[in-house]
Design a protein that fits this description.
- A hairpin with a 2-residue loop joins strand 1 (24-25) and strand 2.
- This protein has 4 helices and 2 strands, in the order αββααα.
- The chain has a two-stranded antiparallel ribbon.
- The protein folds into 3 domains: 1-40; 42-82; 93-125.
- The protein has helices at residues 2-21, 30-40, 42-74, 96-124; strands spanning 24-25, 28-29.
- Helix 2 packs across helix 3 (42-74).
- It is elongated.
- By secondary structure, the chain is mostly helical.
């Protein structure tokens, strides 16, 4: 029974704090002022740096553990069937006719460009 009373007291206290933080003083609320105070304080900046360092450590540890698991599990399975290495679609290749048509199209464009440049030079002279 004491746990329920503690929970209700905590809930009421939280509700009162949230309501009080919505009071506007000047052009901003108390909530906005307290958030900017925490964000801009030297302790807040220090905590932010610590949190970024902790995130970097966790990221490195996750990558290391995942790499070790991948190495140990990969030895027992065909590497092409492991997640992240599967080739769902085969290699897409252009047909020879398409490649030939594109090559001929490029050749025609280059020929037209050369003719245009020659015509422009003859007009300039």
């Amino acid at each position: 029974m004491g746990d329920i009373i503690f929970f209700v007291k905590s809930l009421v206290f939280t509700f009162i704090v949230i309501v009080l933080l919505q009071i506007k003083v000047g052009e901003t609320t108390l909530e906005e002022k307290s958030a900017s105070l925490v964000k801009n304080s030297s302790a807040g900046l220090y905590l932010s740096e610590v949190a970024q360092g902790g995130l970097k450590v966790l990221s490195d540890m996750y990558g290391s553990v995942l790499g070790k698991i991948d190495k140990k599990v990969g030895r027992h399975f065909n590497s092409e069937k492991l997640p992240g290495r599967r080739k769902i679609l085969g290699a897409l290749e252009r047909s020879q006719t398409y490649v030939k048509e594109e090559y001929e199209k490029k050749e025609r464009e280059e020929q037209l460009l050369r003719e245009y440049e020659e015509a422009a030079k003859s007009i300039d002279q």
